[in-house]
Amino acid sequence: AALFAYFVLRRGADAIVAGTPLNVLALGLTGVVFRSLNPAGSALARAPQMGEIAAGLNLYLLVAIALVAGVAFYLGRTRSGLALRAVGERAEAAHVQGVNVLRIRLGAVLFGGACAGLAGSSLVLWISDTFVEGMTSGRGFIALSLVLFGGYRPLRIVAGALLFGAA
């Protein structure tokens, strides 16, 4: 996320143009590190499984629900959430109002990267019990399309995710 922020926020690169090669880099780099730590023929390390709190209810699911509710509240009901929306839609107007556009955008990108890391950890600790090359299977690109599909509105994005998941 920090590398993405550097290219987009400091160097002025387009987010899609910068994000796509970084995604491919991450895919390749994780594979190289995995193969170097697990030579061919060696037993794969097993990750501890995150147990269920109740039938079908896991800590990751609770965190995801809390994050959606928290982000929706933050963006819709707080002053700093309004500033975040402003720097995304009308950065010049936010700057005129005294908002530190770069700082807020950097925080948003790093928060998004932390959420992506949390999602990646759920693949290993909840859905699977080991790392497998390519295990994300393009889920990041699906998430990007969900953001566009949901019109940048958290609850619409969740509805779209549920629709995509059901399909």
Concise account of the structure shown:
The chain has 167 residues and is mainly alpha-helical. The protein has helices at 2-10, 15-37, 59-77, 79-89, 91-96, 101-127, 139-149, 154-166, and strands at 52-54, 57-58.
Largest sheet: 2 strands, antiparallel
Shape: globular
Mean pLDDT: 88
| Radius of gyration, CA atoms, in whole angstroms | 18 Å
- Residues in helices, as a percent range: over 70%
Give a verbal description of the structure:
The protein is mostly helical and 167 residues long. It contains eight helices and two strands. The protein has helices at 2-10, 15-37, 59-77, 79-89, 91-96, 101-127, 139-149, 154-166; strands at residues 52-54, 57-58. The chain has a two-stranded antiparallel ribbon. Strand 1 (52-54) and strand 2 form a beta hairpin. Helix 4 (79-89) packs across helix 6 (101-127) and helix 7 (139-149) packs across helix 8 (154-166). The mean pLDDT is 88.
